[in-house]
Amino acid sequence: MEMRYSTHPEHAKHFTTEELRQHYLIQDLFVPEEVKLVYTHEDRVIIGGIHPVNKSVALEGSDQIKAATFLERRELGVFNVGGSGTVKVDGETYKLATKDCLYVGKGSKELIFESDSSKKPAKFYIVSALAHTTYPTTKQSFADVPSESLGSQATANSRTLRRFIHDEGIQSCQLVMGMTTLENGSVWNSMPTHVHDRRMEVYFYFELDEDARMFHLMGEPNETRHLVMKNDEAVISPPWSIHCGAATGSYTFIWGMAGENKTYKDMDQVAMSELR
Predict the structure, then answer these.
(1) Which of 14, 52, 179, 240 is most buried (most C-beta within 10 Å)?
(2) What are phi and psi of 164, to 5 degrees?
(3) Given the DSSP bridges, would you call strands 233-237 and 199-206 parallel, antiparallel or unpaired?
(4) Is 194 known to sit in a ligand binding site?
């Protein structure tokens, strides 16, 4: 498990390109037969990838989180962004097709991840937050989750928003997660942008062509920076930072938040005129 420490905005604005990438960019999430985890001190969230190919992979506790089991004091959101697979939670099997979501509550002990086929293996993207109470393990299929259309082709940000783990969907302690899909011909996400000082956020970009690139914007509104990203990469957004971007083609991204509250609309909008 890799550790990432919190940064002050006064420090971040002096980072070089490489330093920005070291602090905020998460690469190589899906290593065959392994669990890749990054622990950020931004609200103590853990981001990771699990990629079983020919054998099952377990998500277990570790000395780094001082826990015998991974969910001893945590809750977990799982999205499958690969071929179909299963997650076994304390002996109960949950089948996840592509883009399906599974929430696993605090206190669950055994977590086993498997692919249905080694020719098209599953890729499980996970976000975990601290939890003080237990909510039931719940699956939400992509096909059945409500959707909302946002933006327009005229502003190159026509997109479909789907909320999975939130106040009116899968219940959780503090984790909020969803997925946004850009339509063909649209490239901008979350613009006009915002910050929310009460929660951190992480974006995971996927369904980008191999040679496409995402230009993710971050930083204080008057001190913006950017990271160049590719398919299957994630970026940590501190509470003081904007989080938006544009790519060289359409794509999908999973957003995950944790912090003081679960209110999706608790955000401070940033006027275009304020950006620098």
Answers:
(1) 52
(2) -105, -60
(3) antiparallel
(4) yes
CA distances from 140 to 112, 173, 256 (A): 18, 17, 16
* 41 in a known ligand binding site: no
Q: Is 196 labeled as ligand-binding?
A: yes
Say whether 201 counts as a known binding-site residue. yes
pLDDT for 187-196, tens place per residue? 999 989 999 9
Residues in a beta bridge with 46: 39, 128
Pairing of strands 2-4, 35-40: parallel
**CA dist., res. 219 & res. 169, Å (int):** 30
Q: Taking 90 as the threshold, does the pLDDT of residue 264 lie above it? A: no
What's the rounded Cα separation, in Å, for the pair 87 and 69?
16
Cα–Cα distance between 126 and 104 in angstroms, integer? 11
Task: Read off the pLDDT of residues 39-68 as tens digits, 9 standing for 90 and up.
Answer: 999 999 999 999 999 999 999 999 999 999
